[in-house]
Amino acid sequence: MTLFLAQIDQALDPGGTIQVPPEVMEEGTESIAVSAMGLLNSYAHIFAIAFVITLLVTPLIRRVAIAFDVIDHPDDPRKAHAYPVAYLGGLAVLVGLIVATGTSYVFVDPVANVYPSVPLPVVMGMIAITFTGLIDDVSGLFPHVKIAGQLVAAAALAIYEVGTHVAEGLLKGFMGPPEQVIFTVADLPLLNQHVYYWVGTALIAVFVLGGCNAMNFVDGLDGLASGLTGIIAVGLLAISLLMAIDISAAGEIPSDSLAGARLVLCLALLGAVLGFLPHNFNPASIFLGDAGSLLLGYMCATIILMLGDQGRTDLVFAGLIVFSVPIIDATLAIIRRRLAGIPLSSADDQHLHHQLKRALGGVKRAVLALYGISALFAVVGVTLAALVTQTEMRVRVVYAIALALFSFVGVIAVKAARQQQIRLAVANAGRGQARKVRKKSPARAPAAGRPSKPPPKSSSGQSARPSAE
């Protein structure tokens, strides 16, 4: 009970430092691996609980969806499934996440106890984003109302100032320390920390909106969004372990550190999506729905923001590289629709998974190909994080690599969108020319020796043929 109250107190009132017990502190290269395994052992129950709960709850949620007719019917050519499939899989993922995260407050390993647990506003955001998607699944929401629900979830993160440290890390080199006065109005000073807070709040909104909608875009084939999230969670978990080891090496941990929260969320997310994936992989018996895709995007965005809790924006960039596949697909979709002059919320069949499905000839092949691409990006992101935290590699190198990578993606996106725009223009021009030709063409005369009309039928129903006489 004492440990439970301590975890709640840390989640609500951060401040000060926590001493690291001697058993966590080990020296040398070999001891780092031992410390990493020690942390994984300490948090392993989080993964196991999320996996088992989601695996068992998903069939129950499917029955509820069928009972209330929350079904996705294959009534659109873009849809890959040939039979009706239940929605609401996101609720099963939420249950797994909530139970696993709640367990982290109650059952605390002595090693894990030195790290503060998940802030309660993060859990509030998980619930808010899921129910926004749930309402859209059941009754439908206008796009601006859906965005408003996502901003409510972002506001929950702003309560704990998750993004303000990222803003401080970005701006501190230009503006100076947080306590520095910019100017004074009527004896009220405007400090750098005020700017950091509002810029950080804007960053939270951008990350949550971007993450949620990017994951919603890629949720177009059986098992794609849940499998990609599992790979992303592994990459973010590896970065989080590197950071936790780096922090513990100092001998004391700030009580506002999010090192433990990152580990809990990564393992809970990994367990939940792996528990859901057997039901969702092709052929799927249940879909995530908007409730699930928005929740997965929110979780990824939250963990990436948490990587910058100590102002380490280089590690935030590493997390974004791990999340590259949804970012690339969303970037392509936005540019494609802007150039075509259609609303961003309009659906099409030009997403990465649609193109791979057509090119590779099947849903499973397209999904596995995107798994492989996502795994490559995860390796790149984790490698950069390891080089920054474990070597003397300069932060600017990470910025340069991230800039080159995303600039390359941006150019490819613009080029692909323009090519599609040209193809559509040529196709429309061809159809217009064909219509003009048809209008100008005279009606064809009936062939010689054939009546222009079919012969009338006799009273017996047989065609009356002309007499031979």
What can you see in these coordinates?
- This protein is mainly alpha-helical.
- The chain has a domain at 2-312.
- The chain contains 15 helices and six strands.
- The strands form three sheets. A two-stranded antiparallel sheet has the order 1-6. Strands 2-3 form a two-stranded antiparallel ribbon. The protein has a two-stranded antiparallel ribbon with strand order 4-5.
- The chain starts with a helix and ends in a 29-residue tail after the last helix.
Note the topology:
Blueprint: H1 2-12, E1 17-19, H2 29-67, E2 71-72, E3 85-86, H3 89-106, H4 120-138, H5 143-159, H6 164-175, E4 181-185, E5 188-191, H7 192-218, H8 224-248, E6 252-254, H9 259-280, H10 289-306, H11 313-322, H12 324-340, H13 352-360, H14 363-390, H15 395-440
Antiparallel strand pairs: 1-6, 2-3, 4-5
Helix pairs in contact: 2-3, 2-8, 2-9, 3-4, 3-9, 3-10, 4-5, 4-10, 5-7, 6-7, 7-10, 7-12, 8-9, 8-10, 8-11, 8-14, 9-10, 10-11, 11-14, 11-15, 12-15, 13-14
